[in-house]
Structure prediction request, 356 residues.
Amino acid sequence: MFPHHREREQPIFSARAHVFQIDPTTKRNWIPASKHAVTVSFFYDANRNVYRIISVGGTKAIINCTVTPSMTFTKTSQKFGQWADSRANTVYGLGFATEQQLHQFSDKFKEVKDAARLAREKSQDKELANTALTIAAPQFSQSPPVMCVNGPEDKLFRSQSADITLSSEKERIKKMLSEGSICEMNLEAELFTLQDSNSKLVAALHEANANVEQWKKQLAAYQEETDRLRDQVAELEAHGGQGPSDLLKDELTQSLEELEALLKAKDEEIHILQSKKAEYHEMEHERDQAIHRLRETEMRNSDLERRIQNSEQNLNNSLEERDRMDSEIQRAIEILDIKIFDLNDLRQSLVKLIDK
Prediction:
């Protein structure tokens, strides 16, 4: 099937990237789908008006994803992006060599998604037009029935209309539930990325805290050495020619300047670590927000599932009501047949009586 599709599909964009898939068991870690960077391409099928993302590693297709209007490509870092495929029940991740390649792929993804949306809208309009023609045609070609009982047939038409309405409502709610699942998957992917970044930042913060303690000790030792050298320089200046030579004084002054520069560099490193600590708190806040949004999505999905169950129950009730009405109509038809037969017998009896 894959080579057959490739014969009628045309590539419209390609890029080199490392491909990853989310762990289906934990939904927290990325699993490499390729050992090296592979070609990831957008293909367009003109016959079916469908866009796909395809990547092949050796003889195996590691990405075979049909682009839908509900998909979203998210940049999680300067060189990494991801999107969720609800049909394959997975999340794909791509790692690029440069930030420019990531931007190019993201722009092409958005362009293809918009094109897929326009294609779906045109397809839906065409289907609606064909459906309208199919429904309208029998109304003009259908001949009137031989015998009509207005009351039961009117109920039958109303039950069929209610059945169609409930079916369309069920499809609409299923579509809403599918979109909610996709949104939940995107939020889970975002949460996994934040948790991964959070763990890396925590490890870096612990390492930085350990380094800070060591640097503080070194800083105190450097300050003591600086004070001692300053005292020696002051003592040399006070004694004039009685102390060491001018060469030793210059060496001490140079050592003092080097220590001051080192102290300044250590102060800057401490400020950088403090700013990283602030970024860590900000990441924690973003993770909490993502968890909150995920919980809200789960609540919405639960509500949608409850509504689908209610719709299915209403649909079953309507089907039972329609079956009951069919039985009543059948009984009414049988009674009418009997009455008509009795009336025919009575008419024949009256004719015979008149003839006599």
About this structure: Residues 1-6, 135-158 have pLDDT under 50 and may be disordered. The helical segments are 2-8, 99-141, 150-239, 246-355.
